[in-house]
Amino acid sequence: MSKKLKRKPSVQYVEEDDDRPALIRGIFLDEDAQAQIAKLFQMIDQNSDGTLSKDDFQSFDAFQNQAGAAKWLELRAKFDDDCDGAITLDEFRTGFKKLALDKPAMLGSLPPASTNLAAWLDEIESRINIATKELCQQVFTWLST
Question: Which of 24, 32, 63, 108 is least surrounded, with the fewest CB atoms within 10 Å of its CB?
C-alpha cells in the first residue's frame, strides 16, 4: 500500500497508511498533557527500560487479579501499535489520544465542520487535550488505590 500525505491541524503533513492514525498523530498535545502522560509512563515503567510491559503493570494492585490481566490485554491491543508486546512512550501518548477521541462527551455540541474547518480542528484538538488530562488523572487515581 502506498503512503499518503495527510494534513495535520497545523497545516503540516505526515505520511500514514490509514486515515485514523494520521488524524490521531496529527493532533498536538499541549505541554501539560504531554507532561502528565510522561509522568504516568515513568510511574508505570517500573524497570525504567523505556517501555511498558505486562511485568510493569503487574507491580500495581489494580493488575493483580484476573480483571487486571484482562485490562493489560486491552491496553496492549489499543496502545501497542507495532504489536511487539511492549508500549513505548510514543505509543502511550497516541493511545491516550485514541482514548480521548473515544470519550462519549468529546464530540458533543461541536459546530459543523463546514463552518470553519481550521476552527473546528482547533476545537477538536482542545477537547482531546482536556480529555487526555482527565484520563491521566483517572489512571493516576486508579493505580494509586
Answer: 108
